[in-house]
Design a protein that fits this description.
Helices cover 37% and strands 24% of the residues. By secondary structure, the chain is an alpha/beta fold. Strand 1, helix 1 and strand 2 form a beta-alpha-beta unit. Bound molecules: ligand PMT. Ligand PMT binds next to helix 11, helix 13 and strand 16.
Length: 411
């Protein structure tokens, strides 16, 4: 964003307080930021806050001769390289969709030729209202980029979609070209092993280092996605732009995945999840006993199969770690778990699979396959993410065509 001129429009929602952090992050990324506040926004945050964080005067009035003499609204509209409205209320989105120009921000949005980006924030019911949804669709058809909103607990006490996208994610999205393969997508990745505790000092684990999963998360973020990564116990740095949650056992991994996967577009199950865990976890270190010991194990949840079974769930891409009959076993997993794709990799030999920096992947889907070849996990992750993004697009265009075909003909 080096030297880019950004006009940040702030409208009247509780999320306005987050916009001060957004200004800071935009400036850190190299942008020059000028803030335009609506009257509603000023009820939540004082203009002085934005003046201090942006280092520029804040613009508030359309009909103010002093302000117009400084930098008039047309000049400001021309100055902008991009106009970002965050938070954008339901009211502002409606006024923008209908071309109203009764205050500085709405007028500027009509007067500018700069790309317009809107980050909605409102109560979940207001977001789901057909009027808001229609207004957003109309804006998107006109080329406005809508980022978010996210789901979660809201200031009003409700839970659901309507939270403004976090400033760090907004900046990451703004730094990604709109045409990037996964721009504006939400991707969830599991990575690393799971540890199934036997007692306070012993566990059942595996050799997964997390490298493959972290590389997939990094590649998805670089392709423009908002990435949530659920990682088992590994010591790797979090890739830039990735939101990481650390877990230990399979049950904790499943619960976390189910929480973050709602509304996601794409799920990559790269974690080496233990199929079993001890029925009971001893509260104290087990003492040495007779020569033979038995561990009573119970099945763990199959995380990716649960994600694949979700109604309106994301496209699912699994991994199959096989020591023999790679393609056959991988195809069995693809169909048994009802996945959309599976990346088959051979494990149990040096230089590929677990722990290694390198891997070799055969990508399979119902009725098709592609050998991604041998290479570094980073390279392979980029090829995998790009292949999955292509398939996601194909899947969505087939769904759209099916929807259109099943609609009754009018007249
Ligand atoms: O971490 P690295 O050292 O880089 O190694 C990478 C890797 C070898 C771990 C990775 O490339 C890989 O193959 N990951 C999947 C390992 C695995 O558990 O495979 P699986 O064949 O047992 O499982 C098939 C699929 O089901 C996987 O997507 C797995 O995440 C998922 N699964 C399995 C069991 C379970 N209880 N829940 C699941 O979601």
């Amino acid at each position: 964003m080096n030297g880019e001129n950004i006009v940040l429009g702030v409208t009247g929602g509780i999320a306005a307080y987050k916009s001060a952090e957004l200004v800071r992050r935009l400036r850190d990324a190299g942008a020059d930021v000028r803030v335009v506040m609506t009257r509603g926004a000023r009820a939540f945050v004082a203009p002085l806050t934005f003046q201090a964080v942006s280092g520029n005067p804040v613009h508030t009035e359309l009909l103010d001769d002093k302000a117009e003499a400084g930098m008039g609204h047309i000049e400001l509209a021309r100055w902008a390289g991009r106009v970002v409205v965050a938070p954008a209320t339901a009211d502002f989105i409606a006024r923008l969709a209908h071309g109203l120009a009764d205050d500085l921000l709405s007028t500027l949005c009509l007067a500018t030729t700069a790309p317009l980006i809107v980050a909605p924030a409102m109560n979940q019911q207001m977001w789901s209202h057909p009027a808001t949804q229609d207004n957003c669709r109309l804006l998107e058809e006109r080329g406005v980029r809508i980022i978010g909103p996210e789901s979660g607990s809201q200031a009003c006490g409700d839970t659901g979609p309507g939270r403004m996208t976090e400033p760090s994610d907004l900046v990451a999205a703004l730094m990604t070209p709109p045409g990037a393969a996964l721009a504006d997508r939400h991707v969830v990745v599991t990575a690393g092993p799971t540890y199934e505790d036997i007692d306070p000092v012993r566990f059942i684990g595996n050799r997964s280092s997390g490298r493959m999963g972290f590389a997939v998360a990094a590649a998805a973020a670089a392709a423009g996605a908002r990435v949530s990564m659920v990682a088992g116990p590994v010591r790797l740095p979090t890739p830039p732009g990735v939101e990481r949650t650390d877990v230990r056992g399979a049950v904790e991994m499943r619960d976390t995945v189910m929480r973050v996967v709602r509304g996601a577009d794409l799920f990559f199950g790269v974690a080496a999840v233990a199929d079993y865990r001890p029925r009971q976890q001893a509260g104290q270190k087990l003492k040495k006993g007779p020569d033979r010991q038995h561990l009573d194990l119970v099945s763990n949840p199959d995380i990716i199969a649960e994600v694949a079974a979700l109604e309106d769930g994301p496209m699912t891409v699994g991994f199959a770690a096989e020591t023999e009959q790679l393609e056959q076993h991988a195809r069995e997993k693809l169909s048994a778990k009802r996945l959309d794709m599976i990346a088959a990799n051979r494990v149990g030999r040096a230089g590929t699979g677990f722990e290694s920096e390198q891997n070799e992947i055969l990508l399979l889907w119902p009725g098709g396959e592609r050998h991604l070849g041998k290479g570094s996990k980073r390279q392979l992750a980029r090829s995998l993410v790009s292949a999955a993004a292509d398939r996601l697009r194909d899947r969505e265009s087939i769904e759209t065509r099916t929807d259109q075909d099943s609609r009754p003909a009018s007249g």
